[in-house]
Amino acid sequence: MTDPIADFLTRIRNAVKANHKVVEAPGSKIKQEMTKILYDQGYILAYKFENDEKGHPTIKIALKYHPETKTNAIKGLKRISRPGLRQYVGAKEMPRVQNGLGIAIVSTSKGIMTDKKARQENVGGEVLCYVY
């Protein structure tokens, strides 16, 4: 697999389209940080980090649905920076997703954070994905 982050986002995107309640993906530190951001921003209901029978880390994510309309909190996930074309931005050029209604997950020198927090801390970095 050449792009594990794209695989992670695709698993979530497919689970949303299939109306699954839980999605499971292979884990890594960067994916764990992305999952924590999704939880803190209210896009997922819960998450759990554990190891499978071989000792490999896995992430279980409970997707969030509206109780009455049954629509998912995640409308779209888009991978921005990829192995073939990295996308870096400075603190001044930090993107706004859906005119502020979505978030961009950015990998900075101070860790993985949202575009809003990166603007507050005045750091730039690699734009990993958009979530809206």
* Unreliable spans: none
The ordered string of helix (H) and strand (E) elements is HEHEEEEEEHE
Helix/strand/pairing class, anyone? alpha+beta
Q: What's the β-strand tally? A: 8
**What is the 3D form?**
globular
Question: Over the alpha carbons, how many angstroms does the gyration radius reach?
Answer: 15 Å
Oligomer: single chain
Helical amount:
25-40%
N- and C-termini, Cα separation: 26 Å
Beta-strand proportion: 25-35%
Average pLDDT figure: 96
Reported for the largest beta sheet, the result is: 5 strands, antiparallel
Individual helix count: 3
Observed structural traits:
about 130 residues; alpha+beta; five-stranded antiparallel beta sheet; three-stranded antiparallel beta sheet; 3 helices; 8 strands; about 25% helix
